[in-house]
Amino acid sequence: MEPLAQRLRPRTLDEVCGQQHLLGKDKVFRRTIDSGRIPNMIFYGPSGVGKTTVAGIIAQNSGMHLHKLNGTTASTGDIKAVLADVGTLAGEGGILLYLDEIQYFNKRQQQSLLECIEQGTVTLIASTTENPYFYIYNALLSRCTVFEFKQLNAQDIAQGLHNAAVRLGSEQNCEIDMAPDALDYLAHSAGGDMRKALGNLEFAVTAAPVQDGRRTVTLDMVQQVAQHTAMRYDRQGDDHYDIISAYQKSMRGSDPDAALHYLARLLEAGDLVSACRRLMVTACEDVGLAWPQIIPIVKAAVDAANMLGLPEAQLPLADAVVLVATSPKSNTAHTALNAAMADVQAGKTGPIPRQLQNKHYDGEDAAVKGQHYKYAHDYPGHWVEQQYLPDALKNAHYYTFGDNKTEQAAAAYWERIKHRR
Question: Where are the alpha helices (DSSP H) in 173-237?
Fold first, then answer.
C-alpha cells in the first residue's frame, strides 16, 4: 500500500496547507497558475512542505503531457527520452517536465535542458532543497522564476493531520478520534515536515485498537511514535549555516535565551564541532577586549566539552554560552585588524623602519649609519615615542579604544603615560 502522505496528497491548491504567500487568492503565483499559462519555475524549500504536491496539481490542470524525473536517479538518457516527445502527438498539448532534486544534476545535464526551455517546447518545474543560486547553472536559472516554499508551522501541520485523519477514517470505514494533546504533539514534533507528520499519524492510527467503530489516538501513542522532534539539519545544507549563524548572532546580540536555543539544536543534531567552534569565535570576536579573560575561560569550556563528549558536553557549553551572551561586547580589535588587512591587501606596505630591522650593520650606501632603536624599557613608563609603521603608513590609525570599562582603563593609562609632563 502507498504511504499515507502519498495517498492523501491534496488534489487542489485550496487543499494545500501553508504556503499562502504563494497560494493565496490574491498572490501573483496563484493568479498565474490559475491563468493556465505555466512559466518555467524552480521551487526552493525544505522537504515535506508541498513542493512536489503543488507541482503535481499544476501538471494535472495544465493539459500538458507530464514527465517526472528525479535528479538523484535520472540520467542524460532520461532527459533525451523526454525531449523525444517534442513534435509528436504525445507532446501536442505541450510537455511539462517536473524535475525533483535538480541540485543533483551536473552542469552538463542542466545545460541539456536549455535549448528546449528557450524555445518553449518544454516547460520546466524543478524543485530543490538547496539554495538554487548556489547549485543551479546560471544560464538555466536565468530562464526560470524561483519561488521559495517556507517551512510549515505547527498550525499548518495540525490542519493537514486533521484532514488526513478524516480521509483515513473514510478509507477504513472507521472514525479516527485524535485527542487534542496528541494532535498538538504530532504537529510540533514533525519539525515542519508534513510528510513526517503523516507517517507518524499512520503508524499511530494503525496501532490504535478499534472500539465501537472508532480508533482513538492518544498522546501516549504518538509520543511512542514521535519520540524526537524531526528537526531539520543537514551539515552540508542551508539549515546548518542558518543555525550556526543564528547561534553566533544571538551571543553577539547578548540574548542568552536565543543562544541556548540554537546551542540545543546543534547538540540535538550531534554537531559538537560547530557548537564549540562558533562559541570560541564569538568569545574572541565579539567579547574581545571588553573582557579578554573570557578567551581562556571559553577555551577551557570547549576543551572540557570535547573531553566529555555528548551528552555531558552540554554542561560546560551551556555555562560558556551564557557567559559569552551576557558579557560586555567589543569588536575594536577585529575592526582594527580588518582595516590593517585592507591596507596590506591594497599593497600599502613598504620597507620595515631601520630601527626595527633585525640587522645591526649598514651597507656603504646607507645615508645614516646605525640602527638607533630605542628600547622601551629604558624609558619612564616603559614607553618612548618611536616610528613603528613603514614610512608609507606612518600616520595610519587602526585601533580606537572601545567604550567599555576594560578598554577605557587602558586608554586612561596610556593617556597618562604618553602625555606625561
Answer: 180-189, 194-207, 219-225
- In the structure, what pLDDT confidence band is assigned to residue 368 with cuts at 50, 70 and 90? low
- Beta-sheet pairing, 65-70 with 95-100: parallel
Between CA 305 and CA 199 the distance in angstroms is 36
Whether the predicted pLDDT of 4 surpasses 70:
no
Shortest CA distance to 122 belongs to which of 57, 62, 74? Answer: 62
- C-alpha cell of residue 360: 645591526
Mean pLDDT of all residues belonging to the chain: 86
Q: How far apart are CA 229 and CA 308, in angstroms?
A: 25
For 71-113, the DSSP string reads TTT--HHHHHHHHTTTTSSTTTT-EEEEEETGGGS-HHHHHTT
Q: What percent of the chain has pLDDT over 90?
A: 33
Instruction: Say whether pLDDT at 16 is over 50.
Output: yes
- In order, the DSSP letters of 143-189 are TSEEEEPPPP-HHHHHHHHHHHHHHHHHHHTSEEEE-HHHHHHHHHH
Closest CA to 334 of 393, 286, 370, 372: 286
Which contiguous run of DSSP H or E holds residue 264?
helix 256-268
Question: Is residue 1 very low, low, confident or very high in pLDDT (cuts 50, 70, 90)?
Answer: low
Tell whether omega for the bond before 311 is within 30 degrees of 0, i.e. cis.
yes
Within 8 A by CB and 6+ apart from 355, the residues are 371, 372, 373, 374, 386, 387
Distance CA 235, CA 228 (A): 19
Q: 3-7, 112-116, 341-345, 406-410: lowest mean pLDDT where?
A: 3-7
All three cell numbers of 152:
510549515
Pairing of strands 145-148, 214-217: unpaired
pLDDT digits (tens, 9 = 90+) for 242-288: 889 999 999 999 999 999 999 998 988 788 889 999 999 999 999 99
What are the cell numbers at 279? 562559541
68, 81 contact by CB (below 8 A): no
Neighbours of 333 (CB within 10 A): 17
Collapsing DSSP to helix, strand or coil, 42 comes out as strand
Q: Is 40 helix (H, G, I), strand (E, B) or coil?
A: coil
Least confident of 84-98, 138-152, 226-240: 226-240
Count of CA atoms in the C-beta half-sphere (13 A) of 203: 15
